[in-house]
Amino acid sequence: MTILIYRSQFPFTRDARVRCMLEELGVPYETAMVHLLGDTSAFQKVHPRGKVPFLVEDDRQGERLAISESGAILLHLAEKHDVEGKLLPRNSLERARVYQWLFHTVTEIDPALGGVFANKVFFKGKEGAEEAARASEAIFAKLTGFLEAALDGHEFLVGDKLSLADLALVVTLDWGARVGALTSYPRIAAYHARLASRPAIAKVLGEAAPKSTVAA
Ligand SMILES: N[C@@H](CCC(=O)N[C@@H](CS)C(=O)NCC(=O)O)C(=O)O
Q1: At a CB cut-off of 8 Å and minimum separation 6, what does 42 contact?
Q2: Secondary structure element (H or E) that encloses residue 20, with its range
Q3: What is the CATH class of 2-81?
Q4: Domain ranges of the chain
Q5: Which pLDDT tens digit goes with each residue over 65-101?
Q6: Which fold has domain 92-198?
Q7: Is there an atom of ligand 1 within 6 Å of 52 CB?
Q8: What atom of ligand 1 comes closest to residue 70's alpha carbon?
Q9: Order of strands across the sheet with 54-58?
């Protein structure tokens, strides 16, 4: 069985979620680098949407799975490779809460902090970028109460145990941390710092970022 993850040259793109999960589980995998912002035509022959992460998995029966969407990939990896339920609880109520946070992250927190990060880093200096960053910050501000309540007295999002929902969220929060967007939310900032210092996560998010993506 082989697992191949298409990733970008940046440490923090959404493929980081998948790499963090495989590192936490100790499941071996390979990566293929996609140079985002450059020529991605070769990758688009594999995955026409040209987005990372993309997983290609060949199993022992010779069957191939090729899928995109970071959330779906995390759930697939849990089902297939997390036999002990380390990152996706067996208990159905806890599992439902993991689903809630996974979907909240990919559908709500991602666009908010993604907007802040992209406008402060990739579109920096472009017309309207500052205004767009502020608008995204305002959207993020409205989401923080829900998250802060979940973290009140808790180390992790669900059941006081690391889950794949934390791994999805830490990557999104990392975008915010890199541009100072978490400073007004100490509980969220502390949660991000705690998770980011775990060896498996530090290995992924702690890679040096290309200079062009370091916020001034
Ligand atoms: N909903 C997708 C979003 C994937 C996505 O937008 N990935 C970005 C990097 S974080 C990308 O590959 N962007 C390149 C592009 O849009 O061309 C997921 O969660 O996997």
Answers
A1: none
A2: helix 15-25
A3: alpha beta
A4: 2-81, 92-198
A5: 999 999 999 999 999 999 899 999 999 999 999 999 9
A6: Glutathione S-transferase Yfyf (Class Pi); Chain A, domain 2 (1.20.1050)
A7: yes
A8: 20
A9: 30-34, 2-8, 54-58, 64-68
